[in-house]
Amino acid sequence: MITGTKQVGVRIEAAVKSFGRGQRAVDSLDLDIRPGELLTVLGPSGSGKSTVLSLLAGLAEVDSGRIWFGDQDVTALPPEARKIGVVFQSAVLYPHLSLRESISFAPKLAGVPRDEINARIAEVAAFLQISHLLDRRPHEVSGGERQRAAIAKALVSRPTLLLMDEPFSALDAQLRRALRSQVVRLHREFGATTVFVTHDQEEALGMGDRVAVMRGGRLEQVAPPLELYRNPVNTWVANFVSLQPLNLLPVEYDAQAGEVKLCGETVRLAGPDRPLPATFTLGIRSENLRLRPSADGPLQVLTAEAVGEQVKYTVVAPDGTNVVALGGADQVFEPDAKVALAVDWPRAMVFDTETGARIVEGITV
After folding, report:
1. d(Cα 153, Cα 102) in Å, to the nearest integer?
2. For residue 357, what is the DSSP state?
3. Quick one: how far is CA 181 from the chain centroid?
4. 193 has a pLDDT exceeding 80
């Protein structure tokens, strides 16, 4: 970690923020961000994630609630007093200045000595691979290079909190992946507590030490990426945090026989006394399903799509339910083929049919 970087924990307490007609963009939000962590905030458009970033930056004021940086209450502090760095969707650089001049602007205003500024710029620019571009103006470099310069501009002031609002959304997929990796390495090197807002599941899961999932201004779940993926608290989170379509299948459970009926097949559980309701929703990710050939199988292949070296199948059950499964390219099923399902039951998720809440972590067969 760069010497002199101060790591601060952030706490949001019961924050409320409304816009227009009393609509709450952030609704009673409680969130703890650990010192030095990279927290990704994930949610669909309108979920309140960018509003949270604006509240942390001081660009918007809470209607009620408190915001703490460490043991300092910053709720009423203006942005310039919060010691933050912000990177927006579009690189905020001065068009008439060189990248070097834009990057050095804030520390100059803060009275940082020239030699120290030059040393910081050299350090950050080398890490971001823009040293050779520092004397060019924004219109003379590419979009990805402008965003690297914007990140450098945010870092040279040595912020205790770095805020990033979908900074790669305007870039192509390959460049986004490259910059994501750079930001993760940058965070490890510079150590500033970082909040990264995104609507991209792959981005959030791939970058964050933890992921905070928002919907309708409320926090649904905060967890490390793998825990979030494997143990979502409800069907909405499970479906939203999914790189492939999530299968949500109706299931009937016979407690006396210890059996479940799924897509025309009956599966016996390991014990007859499972704490399961008579009907529930089974959540199964496509990678936790496999198809096996079966001349009299209950399912029929509708489509087969290549996904790299895997094949994504959509199959239909006798009751009309569609199921999505991933399979290896070593065994390819043609459309209309009859198949049966093999389920990775310990990875299956049991949800309450009415509320959508998770009620059982896995099933043993």
Report:
1. 7
2. B
3. 15
4. yes
For the whole prediction, is pTM greater than 0.85? Answer: yes
Residue 103 makes CB contacts below 8 A (sequence gap 6+) with: 121, 124, 125, 134, 149, 152, 153, 156
| Residue 99 main-chain phi, psi, to 5 deg | -60, -40
How far, in whole angstroms, is CA 146 from its chain's centroid?
Answer: 24
Beta strands in 297-355 (DSSP E): 299-307, 310-316, 322-328, 338-343, 349-351
How many helices and strands in the chain, by DSSP H and E? Answer: 8, 21
pLDDT in tens, 68-106: 999 999 999 999 899 999 998 777 788 899 999 999 998
Residue-wise DSSP of 45-75: TTSSHHHHHHHHHTSS--SEEEEEETTEE-T
How many residues belong to the chain? 365
- Residue-wise pLDDT for 327-345, tens only, equals 887 888 999 999 988 888 8
Amino acid making up residue 160: T
Inter-axis angle of helices 143-155 and 173-190, nearest 10: 20
The CATH code for residues 10-239 is 3.40.50.300
**What's the distance, CA 150 to chain centroid?**
22
The domain limits of the chain are 10-239, 245-360
Beta carbons within 8 Å of 211's beta carbon, 6+ residues apart: 39, 40, 41, 42, 204, 205, 222, 223, 224, 225, 228, 241
Cα–Cα dist 19/10, whole Å = 24
- What is the rounded (10 degree) CA torsion for 9, 176, 102, 162? 0
Domain 245-360, CATH:
2.40.50.140
DSSP at 140: G
